[in-house]
Write a structure and sequence with these properties.
By secondary structure, the protein is mostly beta strands. It is built from no helices and eleven strands. Strands 2, 4, 5, 6, 9, 10 and 11 form a seven-stranded mixed β-sheet that branches. The protein has a four-stranded antiparallel β-sheet with strand order 1-3-8-7, with no helix packed on it. A hairpin with a 4-residue loop joins β7 (68-73) and β8. It is globular and about 40 Å long.
């Protein structure tokens, strides 16, 4: 069992920045690949970014490339999503999730590749 807690969401103006945090209490979290997804009501969960256990490999969704960066600090059991140049279409509930493996096998963008999910943190971008 891995318990994840997201934080850092809020209301921001278009063009602004936010950093989301995904924290876990289990030390084993540092051994697992982690991803961020987002969802708006009535739509499917959308892949945002993912990172391997060591941080050596990262992946980003097409809609956020060049604007969002995923990093991790395994000494703090934490993964961050740094979001810049935010747009109103980035408004969503953002979730972090853990894959019980060190790496992805081409499936980093699929929710089914992840075993544990947090409750989400809301990001709202005003125009």
């Amino acid at each position: 069992q891995v318990h994840l807690e997201e934080s850092g969401g809020g209301l921001v103006q278009a063009g602004g920045s936010l950093t989301l945090t995904c924290a876990a209490s289990e030390r084993t979290f540092s051994n697992y690949a982690t991803g961020w997804f987002r969802q708006v009501p009535g739509k499917e969960r959308e892949f945002v970014a993912a990172i391997s256990w060591s941080g050596s490999r990262t992946y980003s969704g097409d809609s956020v490339k060049g604007r969002f960066t995923i990093v991790r600090d395994n000494t703090k059991n934490t993964v961050y999503l740094q979001m810049n140049s935010l747009k109103p279409e980035d408004t969503a509930l953002y979730y972090c999730a853990v894959r019980l493996a060190k790496y992805f096998v081409g499936n980093y963008d699929r929710p089914t590749a992840y075993s544990y999910w947090g409750q989400g943190t809301q990001v709202t971008v005003s125009s």
